[in-house]
């Protein structure tokens, strides 16, 4: 019986992990329900009323689902319960009620993410060639479509390197996007930008304002062209029209904003107008903004802009305030000892709650890579 109950036919390891997890989950639910319910339920009865628990692993046992039968008695309990401690090497990545509300589902995955490491650019390109066009990979498990992006993390958390890995992927798209670079610290990204798009790389605040203006004007031009396409097909976007994407990357966004704040009101208003328009209209037209900064402070990046950055990443060890401002409120963040390039992300419409991810370790010369195109 044990053998079949724990699916021993899928292998002994499967059965043992299954059995162990099941035991811990039952204990946990028992304990939690004794806190939730009143004394009128005697011990025996409580055991009898344990909800139905199902554990399913995927083939490689890297992720799976715990499905627990829902009932009025357990409804609130299931929502509040953090089952991660019963999952051993796994952590919960998403939790939700099934559509029919009959069960509560916890999706889990192995706690250690397999951070990809590339010793040379060839291997990186090979993985790029296996992606669906227009899609960016983060690691083995996580892929996202090109979109407005926010990357947050304290200094040294690997933001710029994460950005490199995304830029290198753009360079391997079948239609390579036009990339604009703004690096107010004139550091490494500036140099990378100069070798990719020399005339679209800016360092000083004035240059960046001008770059923003050019990006905005290019978008306006496309907006006019798009009218015709849109008349033919309402919900189409730049990909359907066979047009190239444009991506504007602003690293160290807070330094840029703090310099902008010292400029005249006319310029400040213009910058705001550009940013707002690009973020609101960009997706359909294929104009995307990637903002990189240390803290997603609402004084620097207004909430209405931040909310429209669809792909959000927080790298490294971050404060609760950083998580809150980036992701709004979430009860149980899968926080861990994040190293460089590792952290949490959300993508509106794809993730229900922040997910663990790790950007690849790049052990090759980035500058050489962008030059060998
Ligand atoms: N994915 C990675 N692959 C290889 N090295 C990395 C990676 N991420 C970070 N590093 C190393 O850590 C250093 C700091 O990373 P990075 O410059 O990306 O951090 P940052 O978040 O942009 O910091 P800052 O806010 O100071 O600009 C890099 O110079 C590099 O040596
Ligand atoms: Mg940086």
Automatic annotation (TrEMBL):
Signal peptide, first to last residue: none
Highest taxon, organism lineage: Bacteria
SUPFAM superfamilies per the UniProt record, alphabetical: P-loop containing nucleoside triphosphate hydrolases (SSF52540)
FtsK domain location: 133-324
One GO MF term: ATP binding
Transmembrane spans: none
InterPro entries: FtsK/SpoIIIE/SftA (IPR050206), FtsK_dom (IPR002543), P-loop_NTPase (IPR027417)
Residues that bind ATP: 153-160
Pfam families for this protein: FtsK_SpoIIIE
Keywords: ATP-binding, Nucleotide-binding
Protein name: FtsK/SpoIIIE family protein
């Amino acid at each position: 019986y044990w053998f079949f109950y724990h699916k021993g036919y899928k292998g002994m390891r499967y059965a043992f992990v299954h059995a162990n997890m099941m035991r811990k989950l039952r204990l946990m639910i028992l304990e939690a329900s004794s806190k939730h319910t009143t004394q009128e339920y005697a011990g025996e009865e409580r055991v009898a009323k344990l909800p139905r628990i199902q554990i399913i692993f995927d083939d490689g046992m890297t992720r799976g689902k715990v499905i627990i039968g829902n009932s009025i008695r357990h409804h609130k309990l299931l929502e509040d319960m953090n089952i991660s401690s019963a999952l051993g090497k796994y952590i919960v990545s998403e939790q939700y009620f099934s559509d029919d509300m009959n069960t509560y589902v916890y999706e889990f995955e192995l706690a250690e993410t397999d951070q990809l490491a590339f010793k040379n650019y060839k291997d990186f390109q090979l993985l790029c060639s296996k992606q669906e066009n227009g899609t960016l990979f983060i690691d083995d498990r996580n892929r996202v479509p090109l979109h407005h992006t926010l990357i947050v993390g304290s200094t040294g958390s690997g933001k710029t390197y994460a950005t490199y890995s995304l830029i290198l992927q753009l360079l391997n798209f079948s239609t390579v996007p036009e990339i604009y670079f703004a690096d107010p610290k004139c550091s490494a990204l500036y140099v990378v930008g100069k070798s990719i798009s020399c005339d679209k790389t800016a360092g000083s605040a004035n240059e960046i304002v001008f770059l923003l203006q050019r990006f905005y004007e290019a978008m306006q031009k496309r907006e006019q062209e798009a009218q015709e396409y849109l008349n033919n097909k309402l919900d189409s976007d730049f990909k359907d029209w066979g047009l190239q994407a444009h991506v504007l990357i602003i690293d160290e966004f807070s330094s840029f904003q703090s310099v902008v704040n010292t400029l005249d009101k006319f310029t400040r208003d213009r910058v705001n107008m550009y940013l707002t328009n690009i973020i609101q209209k960009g997706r359909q037209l294929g104009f995307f903004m990637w903002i990189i900064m240390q803290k997603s402070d609402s004084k620097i990046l207004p909430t209405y802009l931040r909310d429209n950055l669809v792909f959000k990443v927080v790298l490294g060890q971050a404060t609760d305030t950083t998580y809150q401002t980036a992701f709004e409120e979430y009860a149980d963040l899968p926080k861990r000892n994040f190293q460089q390039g590792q952290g949490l992300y959300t993508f509106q419409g794809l993730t229900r709650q922040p997910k663990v991810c790790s950007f690849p370790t790049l052990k090759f010369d980035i500058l050489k890579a962008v030059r060998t195109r």
